[in-house]
Amino acid sequence: MIRWVGFFTTLLCPFSLSGIELHDKPPRELSSEEFMVANALWTLLHETAHAVIEEMDIVFLGSEEDAADQLATIALLRGDPDFDLPGGVTAVESVIAAATAWRIEWELEKREGTEASYWDSHSLSIQRFYNMMCLLYGSDPEKYDEMEGHLGLPYERAYGCVDYESARARRAVERIIQAYGPQHGGDANQGKVLVNYEKTFTSEQHAIVAVIRKAGIAERIAGRAERMLALPNDITIVFAQCAGDETAFWRQDSKEIVMCYELLARFLYLYQAKQCLENSNMTDKDLDLCLARWQY
Ligand SMILES: [Zn+2]
User: Which of the two residues, 156 and 206, has the higher pLDDT score?
Assistant: First the structure.
């Protein structure tokens, strides 16, 4: 039987993660720019996972979208210093920021009365949040036990995260690195990962690209992927305007990971939406106005 108490507590306090306390270094409240960069990092890792799965022809059972979410999250939780960002944003804080973005998307969908896309190849936004929290909790249960409600996970899920889900995902990532990494003595056909920033069309896009370039997230991922994987072809991470689509994707034909400027702007909006949703003093109408103010 499910213990619903924890579950309802989570729904009633959807953003309690910002109030968590740990003995060593409490995750802090990120600035809007840090939140955007952290989400861009996790999303680029998710798209890189698609690229690696297809380029290396990695065979697995289950949803590729869930696998890409797991690969991106484990990549951050492995403790690679490349993924600690300027300003002291840790890889764990990036995981929490990306999971929080999925949770806010779910909250906004519910407010707007949007029907959930049960048919979609991606898990629901709220499931992606819980899946990421599961991997985080399972990575260090002793540490995260101190957080209220096991990171918002019901007891039954949290238990399996420690003994099964997190350990299995980590083992899978280590095996991929072993099996598909550069062989001893180097690999003559080692593919490169290039980065390309396409033209910006608005002052907002210009400012966003400046922040992303300064953080160097694409360059960090490119360097890491080149060192850890023997890619059969060059691939390119492209930042571009996408005709209004707030998305990122892997293009097998052109071997490009595309991050749309519109999605980066969406992350900034989600940060503001989070502030609106967390303000318990607002009436429903005030909340609507708050959310609308940051729409673009
Ligand atoms: Zn995907």
Answer: 206
